[in-house]
Amino acid sequence: MGRLRLRAFEPQDVPEVAALQARVNPHYRWPSDAARAAYLREILLDNPWCDPELPSWVAEDGEGIIGFLGVIARRMRFGARPIRVAVSCQLMVDPARRTSLAALELMRRFFLGPQDLSVADGPNDAARRCWEAAGGIASPLHSLHWVRLLSPARGALQLAASWPRLRTMTRLAAPFAALADECGLRISPRAPQGSLREEAIDAESLATAIEHHRAAYVLRPHYDAAALEWLLGQLRAKRRYGLMQGCLLRDSGGRVAGWFLYYLNRRMSQVLQVGAQRECVGATLECLFEHARSRGAVALQGRLEPHLANGLQGKRCLLQQRGAGMLLHARDSSLLLPFFRGDALFTRLDGEWWTRFSGDDALPADEARESKSRKQKLRPLLAG
């Protein structure tokens, strides 16, 4: 084994890195090696934010590439100041070489880049230890997720189904849970209709809404409509969690009060992003809950981002701890404060969660059948 060498990831490295990913994560589902390689190229080399000064990194020895660290550049604003953010992803080392220091050296090299802020979103414990050893910090708060049961009995079964020993029981209990929810719906009064008006949301209106909420979010993404349209296209392609839905919300005066994006399915619908003026967070969440419930969702799950914490109070949500949270690094520590203070808009749209590195996503069979039957009723990103 030769001396370890780090260098920037280049287009000709794509097949070798794709092969490395296949060895490290054989459970990832791709229809072909070519499809896997094409996706790596698209996300890491051809995305709208590509910055030659913020490349991905490979580690190689005399026998070829043995380690890799993906980097996705993002543009954000800290107050009025534009900053460069580097999101790390796909840190991996060849299983035959894991006794080497390749992972730690890749992380150290990543931190030496010109980015203002480095983020890893949803890493595993091994990545967290490597990140901290290289000088970064972890935010355990971002490992918490909230769950709102929209249909309490069926939603509780979905939570129970995450335990392998209970899956058979949950399948048997499903008809009784559906009956219990139907009875509860007939007995319980409907929640009063909110004062916010729903509108369709698209890339341009979402980018405008985020910029108009700059007073609420000191740290926020800076999107242009073309880049955001590309990102929304990537989200639509991630079909594992269902159909993407979203709304822009206006108050009685016509001002944008908030917005939300989420994946709709009949199991655990996943929230992508919720934004709102501080005084409207609670009302925006209520609109989200009703939007999802009226379309057949039984439960919603989202990350407990600090800017949502006050709005979630009293909303009858459960908390779960999942993963290692969020990892952060910045030479200027003031850039880290918004993540803990509640005035950062850094959601699942801004880290790694939206990517499909684990494989070409598809809806489960029963979800796909239902999706086809209601294709005209549920159009992605439409309010009504």
Give helix % range.
25-40%
Average predicted confidence as pLDDT:
85
Radius of gyration: 22 Å
Order of helices and strands: EHHEEEHEHEEHHEHEHEEEHEHEEHH
Coarse structural class: alpha+beta
The major pleated sheet works out as:
8 strands, mixed
Share of β-strand residues: 25-35%
Helix segment tally? 12
Low-pLDDT runs? 176-182, 363-384
Q: What sort of overall outline do the alpha carbons produce when their principal axes are compared?
A: globular
End-to-end CA span: 60 Å
Q: Would you report the number of β strands?
A: 15
Overview of the structural elements:
This protein has 384 residues and is of the alpha+beta class. The protein is built from twelve helices and 15 strands. The chain has helices at 14-24, 33-45, 102-111, 125-133, 152-160, 167-187, 203-212, 225-237, 281-294, 309-312, 337-341, 365-373, and strands at residues 5-8, 57-61, 64-78, 81-93, 117-121, 137-139, 144-149, 197-199, 219-221, 243-250, 256-264, 269-276, 299-303, 317-321, 326-329. Helix 5 (152-160) runs antiparallel to helix 6. Residues 176-182 and 363-384 have low confidence and may be disordered.
Could you outline the blueprint of secondary structure elements for this entry?
Layout: E1 5-8, H1 14-24, H2 33-45, E2 57-61, E3 64-78, E4 81-93, H3 102-111, E5 117-121, H4 125-133, E6 137-139, E7 144-149, H5 152-160, H6 167-187, E8 197-199, H7 203-212, E9 219-221, H8 225-237, E10 243-250, E11 256-264, E12 269-276, H9 281-294, E13 299-303, H10 309-312, E14 317-321, E15 326-329, H11 337-341, H12 365-373
Parallel strand pairs: 4-5, 12-13
Antiparallel strand pairs: 1-2, 2-3, 3-4, 3-9, 5-15, 6-15, 7-13, 7-14, 8-10, 10-11, 11-12
Helix pairs in contact: 1-2, 5-6, 7-8
